[in-house]
Write the structure tokens for this entry.
Amino acid sequence: MKFSKQITVNASAGKVWDILGRDFANIGVWATSVSHSVANNELAKVNNSPVGGRVCETSFGKISEEFTAYDDDNKTFSFKGVFDSKMFKSVINTSGLTSIDENTTEVSFGPNVELSFIGTLMYPMIRMMLGKAIDVILDDLKYYVENGKPSPKKLASQKKQKSNARTPEPLSPENAQT
């Protein structure tokens, strides 16, 4: 299953890239679906990427995301998700920026998902849920870049997490699902 989603951000490509590409490890600051993220410095950097990858605490559990490609000049990268799943065999996402003008940038996310047999049976639901999840991430990114603070959805998510607080296992590359 392969598709692409885009959003237009009212900011320069450089400003968007600083957050999306160069600050890759800190997606947990602005993405609603990621409660916390840390750099995975145990992984080798790819083509001068800022880190080798990141580990994210998500509503799906801990996920390790490892760069497979990184191009700072062209503002593109790809990463693979590493996690246990009965529905997915592999997940690779490619993201890139296109400068429309000095204050407008198109951001694209292009997941390429290989489904297991069970995942194939659930294709319509998975496609819909994945599409919605990417829409939220893109909306969160747009809000964060344009306003300099997390979106209201992200703030509400953080507030809810604090009210349901438990003492989680510290997030690190060692305890990510692989």
Q: What stands out?
A: The first strand starts at residue 5 and ends at 9.
